[in-house]
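Example 9 (inverse folding). The structure is encoded as follows.
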């Protein structure tokens, strides 16, 4: 009986050994599962990192291609802006050089002629009412092509005149040229003067803005490297007031010139020597705030993709995403938005120079493109009263470059 109630010590030791072996196997399985999970997470992070790097590389190639296309467009516009009288014909060409074929025109006129042939052969494009995109050319550039098309038709008629006289027939009457089917409406002299004023301001403002954007990007990346703990956009970005003051100081001279030009268009010059500070601050915010919002969304999105293995991995991901966002803004958006705010400063100067009881006429920058602006241009409106779109003065929407003038001044 005593042996049945109390097992031998050997049996207890065997049971303890089996339990210990089971615990060891369980610990080993847990450790293997943990290592496997870590390997899967590391592999997923590596795949994500490679995908981000690949996306950034494709984005850089796209930005480079956009810049190349912009350069090609600029070169084409410069070629098209050659006066027709300056383009030599085969008969009037100077003696060819040693490597040229006699009787052939120079390569540059041939390229210009090919471009004109393509323009004539292309079907007319129906304009759609939509806001200006980042690929839209400046006002003066967008209006250059129709004028050059007219110049090309004049050169063709001039070239045909000697041939007609050689046959003894009088030259055809060119006082009333046949209108083109897709001929653009004439450009309003007020808009032409506005574009002539703003175009010289644009290159310096763009260069200075790009330098400031580089400084802001470097400061933001430095803040990302120095931050310990949670990365939040509001902690990393500079103070909004300080950023506003910096951009206001940079943009004020060009805004003053555009604002005073608008006042002169409304018939007021003299006493006012600069744009009001409230106008400069407001227009600077229109230029700066969209980029700040994009950077905030980018930072929040990168942080939300965590957790990251180390702070350095998070810093690399943030640096890649922030750099891509700044490059995109400089290459695609910056110049068009600067043109928009300069046009808005001009429009504000014309509006504020108008008398308190003036009847204002809304002058659409591109008639037929925006139905809202076309509605505003239907009839004059008393200053201070809203136009059909609800605004008292331009811009009516992002990308709007219309102006308002007193009815008697326009």
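The amino acid assigned to each position is listed next.
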């Amino acid at each position: 009986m005593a042996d049945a109630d109390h097992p031998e010590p050997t049996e207890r030791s065997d049971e303890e050994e089996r339990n210990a072996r089971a615990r060891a196997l369980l610990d080993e399985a847990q450790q293997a599962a943990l290592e496997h999970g870590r390997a899967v997470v590391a592999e997923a992070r590596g795949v994500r990192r490679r995908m981000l790097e690949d996306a950034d590389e494709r984005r850089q190639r796209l930005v480079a291609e956009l810049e190349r296309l912009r350069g090609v467009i600029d070169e084409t516009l410069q070629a098209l802006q050659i006066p027709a009288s300056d383009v030599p014909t085969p008969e009037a060409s100077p003696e060819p050089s040693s490597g040229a074929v006699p009787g052939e025109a120079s390569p540059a006129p041939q390229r210009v002629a090919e471009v004109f042939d393509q323009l004539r052969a292309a079907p007319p494009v129906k304009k759609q009412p939509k806001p200006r995109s980042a690929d839209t050319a400046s006002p003066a550039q967008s209006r250059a092509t129709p004028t050059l098309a007219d110049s090309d038709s004049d050169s063709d008629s001039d070239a045909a005149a000697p041939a007609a006289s050689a046959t003894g027939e009088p030259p055809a009457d060119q006082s009333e040229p046949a209108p083109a089917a897709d001929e653009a409406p004439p450009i309003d002299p007020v808009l032409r003067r506005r574009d002539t004023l703003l175009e010289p301001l644009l290159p310096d403002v763009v260069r200075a803005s790009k330098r400031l954007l580089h400084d802001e990007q470097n400061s933001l990346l430095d803040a990302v490297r120095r931050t310990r703990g949670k990365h939040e956009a509001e902690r990393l970005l500079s103070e909004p007031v300080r950023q506003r003051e910096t951009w206001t100081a940079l943009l004020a001279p060009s805004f003053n010139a555009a604002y005073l030009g608008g006042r002169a268009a409304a018939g007021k010059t003299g006493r006012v020597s600069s744009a009001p500070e409230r106008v400069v601050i407001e227009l600077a915010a229109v230029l700066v705030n969209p980029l700040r919002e994009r950077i905030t969304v980018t930072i929040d999105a990168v942080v939300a993709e965590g957790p990251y293995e180390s702070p350095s991995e998070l810093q690399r991901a943030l640096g890649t995403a922030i750099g891509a966002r700044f490059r995109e803004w400089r290459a695609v958006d910056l110049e068009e938005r600067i043109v928009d705010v300069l046009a808005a400063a001009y429009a504000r100067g014309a509006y504020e120079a108008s008398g308190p009881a003036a009847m204002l006429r809304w002058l659409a920058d591109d008639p037929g493109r925006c139905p809202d602006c076309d509605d505003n241009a239907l009839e004059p409106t008393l200053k201070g009263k809203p136009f059909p779109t609800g605004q008292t003065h331009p811009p009516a929407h992002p990308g709007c470059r219309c102006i308002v003038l007193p009815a008697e001044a326009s």
